[in-house]
């Protein structure tokens, strides 16, 4: 009896568990990779390790108490999360935010974008294999930004600074010179990263041509942020539906064409430079004035209605869908998470690559698990 | 009956030399761990260990005590023989490599006529230890790390050996001490710049140092073959890595930079010779740590492609040029010229190979597309 | 290779600059005035009693329900021969520092400016061995203000800078 087999050499695929505790999964994220030798055949992601029920909790919180929970929904870009939330409340309650508050909000949001992209550079550098150096450089610059935030709001990461209507309290008197100091430090940091990674041949060899997602596929997956702009789609919420004062200053939408990991890295590096430009223009236009509308009630109540507000978080389109049935708390709060949508493309990007490349692709999507899981 | 040091009984002499090696190696490895942490810290704009003892000098001692006191964990399904003996097979060949390292004139532990051959043979045995550790750990990450280590070590063995061969061709001998003493006027790096660079890169790969540390990729396979070891066994790997780093730097400084011979020759007392050797080795160690702080790691297929397609042909080229110059008695300056040309060629090839879009990436995309259509159907 | 050389030159330039780390327990960075650690109760030095009257405003406003407040009749009130105008005074007050999320809402809603966030290092160095020790009672919450060791910052909500 002759037994014929389809392959000459029967092998078995290995199920590799890149578990919730791992130095490079950027949080508690688990994926099971089906690996044939070194080539990835399938990825099964498991999320939910950081689910804390933020959306449900916010149903029991009034509009001021909920701001702290929005901070923790995306802790690396907390200002942006707070901004979406307070903008939704302002739209429901039809509050008008004074100009000074708008400009200061813009400055803070862009500084937060800088610190978030710096965090990406640091973590990405470790994924690629440079031990420690880009991480420390990122932290050195982030320290400058976070110290500034501590002087303004009192806290280094969970600011709870924006309020429906404007800001909680005004910035300190030396805000403008301090901002300019921080920008100088950040420029040096961006130059350091540029020198360290961008032209490094091994870095290019590791990241070029890896994890390509085409523009059509990216739109199908619902990606947003630098991940989709690196594939050539010029989608930026600040340009599509301008909020704050983005339509009054000059800035560019950064796109790249290849859609691979290197393009995403370059996009984020260029976006950091754009953020510096934006902050400088805002600092020039900052005028003294009120930061809250007059006659703000002690306990804010909103008329019944529903609203969807989206903003450009450092990771993509962060949206808040809020339904109010009157009263001082939302009836339903839904967070449209940029990272969750971007994460859907992980399998598409990584199948057929090596294990080491799959790790780098995951790093380049730049997820923060608190937003994926809420 | 040959007499040993100071006319002692050769067996006693052998035991004394053994004890010197063991003691020296442990101290050197611990000192080197401390130096790496401090220097790497300065590259990272931070200070490094500074609390245990003055300037943190006792940090390595504290680490050693901690590791000795740890529980010896063993996975239930670990293969007992390979798991047990893997660390020893990694550690012991490094001791053996110490035997031929030339520190000072006349004070090498044993001057062997086949010094280079012995060294290469002995350092290759560690690879078996890595694979044993990877296989015996009953852990997928360990196995992946072990396979990668084996592939890498085998690939870089050839450029390693061929560059050593080019140096010994110049001196006409495999005896390391004689090669050092042949460099009285000019260090070998002047005649063999290409071999120096190839040997440096291949040595980094043999040591599993960044950018070739994918078997021990700290951010992916979290320790590679050593992930299941704890306590003393793990410290054996760790110390072995740093001890072999030291030996390799001594060897590079001896073979290419002139060791204890250049520039002052043997008129210098042995104390100064030791200082000179250590200074040259320190410069190389600084360079190795500098490379670690600046360069990402190569993926396993890129690494192997680099060894087989770029380093191996260039090292063969170097041997060929050496052969021509030595057989036909051409002026030695031709060696330098050819070597510098070879260095430019290496630089150009490296840049060209990396930044040019390759068909293999299109193949990866095509494979992915085929897999998805297979999965869909 | 030239890109690698550029990376190495960048790291060398950082090597030659002084390190940026601070030696923490030996050196404490000066904290800004608005620094927000855990809440403390403030002490009225003129009358020698806490400002807090136990009105439960902060307890209701707290998002994580970390406070427990009990009030009592003030034995120091004018009507019974004392010097204070506070009819009620705080009797027992517990804040669970393990639950507090330092959102500052209790400071904002307090009608008497009786609670403020600790802006000194002792607010950040609250490590204990047992989680129960993180529940602070009235005496622990008032020690710092009582001894004058804190200069609190109580903001006026929504007030712009005068300029």
Q: How are the elements arranged and paired?
A:
The complex is a heterotrimer of chains A (about 375), B (about 375) and C (about 160).
Chain A: E1 14-18, E2 30-36, E3 39-46, H1 54-58, H2 66-73, H3 78-93, H4 99-128, H5 133-153, E4 162-163, E5 166-167, H6 175-198, H7 201-207, H8 215-221, H9 226-229, H10 237-240, H11 261-284, E6 305-313, E7 316-324, E8 332-336, H12 338-343, H13 346-350, H14 355-365, H15 369-373
Antiparallel strand pairs in A: 1-2, 2-3, 4-5, 6-7, 7-8
Chain B: H1 10-43, H2 59-68, H3 80-98, H4 115-136, H5 140-171, H6 176-181, H7 188-191, H8 193-206, H9 232-255, H10 270-294, H11 300-327, H12 333-355, H13 359-376
Helix pairs in contact in B: 1-2, 1-9, 1-10, 3-4, 3-9, 4-5, 5-8, 5-11, 8-11, 8-12, 9-10, 11-12
Chain C: H1 2-16, E1 39-41, E2 43-44, E3 49-50, H2 57-61, E4 67-73, E5 88-96, H3 105-109, E6 115-117, H4 121-124, E7 135-136, H5 138-146
Antiparallel strand pairs in C: 1-6, 2-3, 4-5, 5-7
What does this structure look like?
The complex is a heterotrimer of chains A (374), B (377) and C (163). Chain A has helices at residues 54-58, 66-73, 78-93, 99-128, 133-153, 175-198, 201-207, 215-221, 226-229, 237-240, 261-284, 338-343, 346-350, 355-365, 369-373; strands at 14-18, 30-36, 39-46, 162-163, 166-167, 305-313, 316-324, 332-336. Chain A is an alpha+beta fold. Chain A has a single domain (14-373), classed as Cytochrome-c3 Hydrogenase, chain B (Orthogonal Bundle). In chain A, β4 (162-163) and β5 form a beta hairpin. In chain A, α2 packs across α3 and α4 runs parallel beside α6. By secondary structure, chain B is an all-alpha fold. Chain B has two domains: 1-66; 70-356, no CATH class. Chain B is 69% helix and 0% strand. Chain B has helices spanning 10-43, 59-68, 80-98, 115-136, 140-171, 176-181, 188-191, 193-206, 232-255, 270-294, 300-327, 333-355, 359-376. The model of chain B is unreliable at 356-368 (pLDDT under 50). Chain C has a domain at 35-146: 2-Layer Sandwich (Alpha-Beta Plaits). Chain C is built from five helices and seven strands; from the N terminus they run αβββαββαβαβα. Chain C has helices at 2-16, 57-61, 105-109, 121-124, 138-146; strands spanning 39-41, 43-44, 49-50, 67-73, 88-96, 115-117, 135-136. In chain C, the strands form three sheets. Chain C has a three-stranded antiparallel sheet. In chain C, β2 and β3 form a beta hairpin. Chain C is elongated and about 85 Å long. Chain C starts with a helix and ends in a 17-residue tail after the last helix. The A-B interface holds A 14, 16, 22-24, 38-39, 41-42, 125-133, 136-137, 140, 196-197, 200-206, 208-210, 212, 348, 351-357, 359 and B 40, 43-46, 140-141, 144, 210-211, 213-214, 217-220, 222, 292-302, 350-351, 354-355, 357-358, 361, 364-365, 367-368, 371-372, 375.
